[in-house]
Amino acid sequence: MDVKLPKLGEGSDSGVVVGIFVKVGDTVAKDQPILELENEKAVASIPSSGAGVVDKVHVKSGDRVSVGQRLITLSDGGAPAAALVPAAKPAAKKTAKAAPEPVEVEEVEAEAESPEENFTPVAAPVASPSLRRMARELGIDLTKVRGSEAGGRITTGDVRAYLARLAKAAAKPALAPVGAAPAKLAAVQIDFSQWGPILKKPVTQLRKVIARRMSESWNTVARVTQFDDIDFTRLGELRKKFAPEYEKKGVKLTLTPFVLKAVASTLKTHPIFNSSLDEVANEIILKEYVHLGIAVDTDQGLMVPVIRDVDKKSLFDLAKELEQLAAKARDRKITADEMKGGTFTISNQGAIGGAHFTPIINLPEVAILGLGRGVLKPVARDGQIVARLMTPVALSYDHRVIDGGSAARFTVDLVKAFENFSEDAVKL
To answer: What is the mean pLDDT of the chain?
Structure first.
């Protein structure tokens, strides 16, 4: 029997083989993992749909496979695998209804030589000898010119009109399909070794996915980034005060759970930031749930696990779930489903460093919040200059959906949510 790639989930129909666990001659049990597949930033094990001895392996590491494609062939350990398959019926019998193999059909663009619409070229155009001679000299195909006189006779005016339409068609730029990315210039390979020593590192499948998604967002969204600085002094004090109690329960309390709660409460009062643009239906989808994506820096690249129903969870539950998801992301054990369904994304670079930056929106969301490293700065408070922990924030939003005034109001309320964070929300 052939073991084929099963369905991978909604919206996923292919993946890249990153590891193979079996070889020819191995005995495989049903549901035993036979290979690892990378798909949409997640790595998952693919189980065998049957039991037997591996007769042939049809894929290798690095291959992209699609749903229904053969992965391995199993036999019963005695007769060859081919002997276990019923003999095929003769191909000459046209009555046999076998499922046809998928065939790639090459799309052929319609000839654009003639701009005439609803006109069938004639085999023998009717025109005067002088007009035929002129057409030959100019290279005009009279069979494609519509005659305006009786019997379809072509006049000099018809030829002029035909040439004018050709010129107009040539000057008109080709329109790309709606939503399609701009045409990409052909890549040029440069031999950098001519200037000194180099090292070559292959682009991983994860990096390809990141590059594709970032390019799609960059080419699609009308981005604007709103900058501000938020006083994190109170949050820092609350974290230090309650961190020992959280650690006693086995959870590390960082500032990120505070950020999650503050963002969730602000999204509830500004639902347009918790929406998506449906370009097909020309509708804005306002989501009544708050699922926040957290950008996690891993050795392999950026991953964005999603924490669901943030507005309904306690700070303790968020801290615990955040720690677990971040660990799974770094170990590449997170599933594709755990990175789907986000309504708003947070990118916190505070632990690494840096100040303001312009985060790229994680489509199909319409906004993303970036946080930099908090720094003690002199700030005026009640007429006094005091040292406060000021954290730079950057809110990138889709101007097709959100106006600048809405972004400014969102930022003002977000600052209040951080600086007036309730201590009761931190208590266990």
So the answer is: 82
